[in-house]
Amino acid sequence: MLRDYELALSNYRLISTDYKLDKAWKRYAAVQEMMGAAYFMLNHSWKESEHCMENAFNTYLKNVPAGHQNATRCGLWWVEMLKTRDQFKEAAGVYFLIAGEESLHSAVMLEQASYCYLYSKPPMLRKYGFHLVLSGNQYKKSDQIKHAIRTYRRAVSVFKGTTWSYIKDHVHFHIGQWYAFLGLYDAAVIHMLEVLMCSHQSKTTQELFFKNFLNFFQKTGKACELLKLPLPIIDASSLKVVFEDHRTYASSAAVSVTESLWRSFEEEVIPSLSTARTNWLEVQSKFTSRRPKESNICVVGEIIEVGVEFKNPLQISIPLTGISLICELSERSDDGQTDANITGGMLNDQDSKLAADRLLNSSASVVLSDVDCVLEGGSTTMVKLIVTPREEGILKIVGVKWKISGSVSGCYNFVANPMKKKTTTRTRKHMHSFSDNLKFAVIKSLPKLEGLIHSIPERVYAGELRYLTLELSNKSEVAVKNLKMKISHPRFLNFGSAEHFDINYPACLQKITGSKRSGPMPMQREGSDSVFLFPNDNVIRKGSSLSWPLWFHAAVPGSVSLYIVLYYEIEDIECSMKYRTLRMFHNMEVLPAIDVSFQLSPQPSTPQKFLVRMDVTNQTSSEDFQMDQLSSLGNQWEISMIDPLFHPPLLMSGQAFSCFFMLKRHEKSGDSEEISSLHSPIGGDVKLSTKDDDDSLFDVSLSPLSDFHNCERLYQEKQSEGGSHTVDFILISHQVHNKNNPGVSHSPCFLSNHACHCSILGSSPISWVIDGPHEIFHDFSASFCEVSLKMTLYNSSKTVASIRINTMDSSHLGDSGSVFSNQEGWYNVPLENAIKVTSDVRGTILKSLLWESAHPTIWSASSSTKLQLGPGSMAEIPLQVCVFCPGTYDLSNYAVQWNLQPLGAQQNPESRPSSGTCPGYPYYLTVISSS
Amino acid sequence: MATTACFIIVSRNDIPIYEAEVGSTVKREDAAHLHQFILHAAQDIVQDLAWTTSAMFLKAIDRFNDLVVSVYVTAGHILLSE
């Protein structure tokens, strides 16, 4: 008091030791306190003062009962001392010590501690925040909610922007809760929004947060407020918009095919935009007059489908109701800027009312769809929303809105920043930004054809022939005309003709009894093979539909994607769109069913006859097939069964079957009335089945079989040498349905397998026939028998062939070991041996000679004959053989060597061999002794 | 150990990279944020202390009630605190 601190200090020191010894703690502590103060005032050795204060404090706390107040006071003194020395950190520590565990008291102290940390240099913000939180906690415990909120709010700023998620969640959650407790639900909701996206927390915590959020929101009483909810997460890049302008789709599968594929496919069908340019002036004017494409076009009354992905990051499931698009429909003459302003103002809370009004006004002109769904925990769902404009104008899809649990509304704007495009007059870049893709110019109602192919199968067996109907219906007011259709795979799907309507399947394929063949000939095409023009009288009027037959033939096994484009023009002259296209897409799987292969070999006896071997394999595992008919196409081929009474059996699954036929070539006769050189060549048909109605042969010259066959010929084309050397076969069979499968429909199911370009040429171009007697009676007692044979050679190649025929008397098996012992052929018999021969019976001598050492037959004419044979010509060569004893002999011991002279540059050396040797074929001669 | 120890790795810019509860008892939710608070606050001290000493392992830099915070600083100022 008198400011004589040193004196006071010394006195205090004396007393303190006394008190300490006496264990008068309270007084001791008090003295320590005063000592500390004195030191402080003396302004030196602050360490001592600190030490004293600490001492005092501790003593108060420990030893003095109910000394908290004293301790607090002491502590506060201490803190003040420290603060003046700018030792805020220690001060904060002291505050912390003072804080203890009592609620309000500690709360205040902790708060003070936090401020100390703030003041310290450098400011310890984290400690500040932490202690604020602690103090807030204590405030809450002592029911000082407002103070708690206050401290927590101060703490929020520390943790904002950090990624210490648990801390932030804790802070926000508690603030939210306390606000709710106070009844300030608005603020509570704001804070709860911060904790909504808490996917890192446990499931129970997530549920708790979510429930609280909903609770608070409901209590705020605002039902229609459009908030920027972070939940659920919407992926803007997943936005998919499907609309139809002049390109329409028949099914959703057609939509998923890429646009470039459709464009390249449609090129032929759509009339090209540019007309003939005569000079460069016109070219210039076209460029300047063309206005840039601003927006997409859609039609009144047709839907625009938008697919958006909603993602739920939490582990709990969120029920969403009322998901729909936010759209704006404005008049076409409006300036684009006003719309942009309104779009920007959509999310502003002040303008939300304006936006709501606008939505209300436009509700009559736009029909939106409403979707409800439940997002499971962690799942991503694609939600498809539909908007249908009912009036013309400009339609903009702005965003999407939804409601969580029926109460909380949220919205999401697709365009984050509506930017104004600056376009200069010179260069107009076609920058289609994101917002442009969502802008549509709605034009007045146009007709839209709906197309459907009835009963198109998804899984078929290879070779199946099916009759399908394409139905196009026009439900609008305007008629369409000039229909064109293009099919991507004419090998699989082909157009029928109008005559096919009246006849049932499969009767329309079959031959009409009687000699005259009438019926639809193969269709006329325009341009390429796959574009089909509907006859001009086909105009689909309003409300009517057009049906057209289609033929489907599954040519090869595998997976087939069929693309079909239908082009039609609109009769109404006023509308801006002149034509539309309907795109159809079908995917089907073709399973292997019957595999057929043919082998032809020329018959040696007649060059115009061939032996056909047909191998059929049933490659399915459960279906049985019955073969009905085999037809041959080509230059006047006639096919017949070798055994007319034989019928091939039912081909069960997994079985294979071989059959032989005879194929004859007719010479061309020009004066037959039935042959028409343009269309169907005469073929042959062989009935294979055992059905009684013999008239039901299929006519392979009629469309569609002939159309499919022509396609198959194109696809199966190998390096053939021209029409005269190949023949085509068609095998028609039908599926026999199992009795065990009651669910399968029993409509007749025919399969046609086409084998094209079967070569009739054998391995060698030279063929020959040996003519001569097969049976001879001869009296061997008179002399040996000489038989004359004639060999007719035929050169079926295109070049001159030099042929050499070698007759060999040795066995053609080449038994060279026994040459000396069993000499055959002509050889010199030495005279000594000849004399030894007795002459009792010449035949027996001859026999013994022959049997011991010679072959019973000997070729006696020239042993080697050489000749040149021109292309396609025949020659005859005499042969002679001597027979010495009766028996049956196989005269095949000769060889034919041939060499084809090369044509020059034209001949392909790899296709046919140019030389070869063929052994003789068996020719049996029976000589019977007639003595 | 009666309580669990919380181990956090914090990057240079005060972003927690890794968090783990080590110990035999089941993790409690309410203790989770408390641990985060303590360790987060301890970073203040660490930041001053790290520049004063060349040692990397700073043991027991801070206390809160009965929980002790010890820190290991790497050369890139990544704090591994427990």
Layout of helices and strands, plus pairs?
The complex is a heterodimer of chains A (931) and B (82).
Chain A: H1 5-22, H2 25-42, H3 46-62, H4 68-84, H5 88-99, H6 103-119, H7 125-141, H8 145-159, H9 165-182, H10 185-196, H11 203-220, E1 226-227, E2 233-242, E3 247-249, H12 252-255, H13 259-266, H14 280-289, E4 296-299, E5 304-311, E6 318-330, H15 336-344, H16 352-361, E7 366-368, E8 371-375, E9 380-389, E10 393-404, E11 408-413, H17 434-437, E12 439-443, E13 449-454, E14 459-461, E15 464-474, E16 480-487, E17 493-495, E18 531-533, E19 545-553, E20 558-570, E21 579-591, E22 594-602, E23 609-618, E24 624-633, E25 637-641, E26 656-665, E27 684-687, H18 705-715, E28 726-736, E29 750-759, E30 766-771, E31 775-778, E32 785-795, E33 801-807, H19 831-836, H20 842-853, E34 857-859, E35 864-869, E36 874-883, E37 887-890, E38 894-900, E39 915-919, E40 924-929
Parallel strand pairs in A: 1-11, 3-21, 4-12, 14-21, 31-40
Antiparallel strand pairs in A: 2-5, 5-9, 6-8, 6-10, 7-9, 10-11, 10-12, 13-15, 15-19, 15-29, 16-18, 16-20, 17-19, 20-21, 22-23, 23-26, 24-27, 24-28, 25-26, 28-29, 30-32, 32-36, 33-35, 33-38, 34-36, 37-40, 38-39
Helix pairs in contact in A: 1-2, 2-3, 2-4, 3-4, 4-5, 5-6, 6-7, 7-8, 8-9, 9-10, 10-11
Chain B: E1 5-10, E2 16-22, H1 29-52, E3 57-64, E4 67-73, E5 79-81
Question: What labels would you give this structure?
Answer:
heterodimer; A: 8-stranded antiparallel beta sheet; 7-stranded mixed beta sheet; 20 helices; 40 strands; 27% helix; elongated; B: 82 residues; alpha+beta; Beta-Lactamase; 5-stranded antiparallel beta sheet; globular; TPR-like_helical_dom_sf (chain A); Trafficking protein particle complex subunit 8 (chain A); Ig_TPPC8_1st (chain A)
